[in-house]
TrEMBL record:
Cytoplasm in keyword set: yes
InterPro entries referenced in this protein's UniProt entry, alphabetically: Longin-like_dom_sf, Sedlin, TRAPPC2L
Compartments where found: Cytoplasm, Perinuclear region; Endoplasmic reticulum; Golgi apparatus
Annotated Pfam families: Sedlin_N
Domain of life: Eukaryota
GO biological process: endoplasmic reticulum to Golgi vesicle-mediated transport
The protein, known as: Trafficking protein particle complex subunit 2-like protein
UniProt family annotation: Belongs to the TRAPP small subunits family. Sedlin subfamily.
Source species: Climacteris rufus
Keyword entries, A-Z: Cytoplasm, Endoplasmic reticulum, ER-Golgi transport, Golgi apparatus, Transport
Record PANTHER family: TRAFFICKING PROTEIN PARTICLE COMPLEX SUBUNIT 2
Lineage of origin: Eukaryota, Metazoa, Chordata, Craniata, Vertebrata
Transmembrane segments: none
Length: 139
């Protein structure tokens, strides 16, 4: 299951970040921040091909000793970064992909809310509940 989930605007401003356990939150902020360069490199390397795809899963961005960092980009260039514990070998690529799809669907629901101001941090109890349950059970 993910230990940290983050949504980042194209300008690299975080819209949402959630970490479990919360005492490591600063460490995950740093991990997510350093992964943004890798996301940008992957996007520019894919270039034109990325425009034609509906599925914008970037895969494993980089592994560290303790964590694996995965990336996903929406059509509007919002970046999703997920940090997963390296010891979790049961988590397959298609499960990570499905978690990103679930996050993207929930993100879309938030964007469709007429009371949400695009660019504001995401404060939604329903969204928090969905992310928490995903982090606890792994999808």
């Amino acid at each position: 299951a993910p230990v940290s989930v983050c949504f980042v605007l194209p300008q690299n401003y975080p819209l949402y970040i959630r970490s479990v356990p919360t005492e490591n939150e600063l460490k995950f902020h740093y991990t997510v921040h350093t992964s943004l360069d890798v996301v940008d490199e992957k996007i520019s390397a894919m270039g034109k091909a990325l425009v034609d795809q509906r599925e914008l899963y970037l895969g494993l961005l980089y592994p560290t000793e303790d964590y694996k960092v995965y990336g996903y980009v929406t059509n509007s260039k919002v970046k999703f970064v997920m940090v997963v514990d390296s010891s979790n070998t049961a988590l397959r690529d298609n499960e990570i992909r499905s978690m990103f799809r679930k996050l993207h669907n929930s993100y879309t629901d938030i964007m469709c809310n007429p009371f949400y101001n695009p660019g504001d941090r995401i404060h939604s109890r329903a969204f928090d509940t969905m992310v928490n349950s995903m982090m606890m059970q792994g999808c």
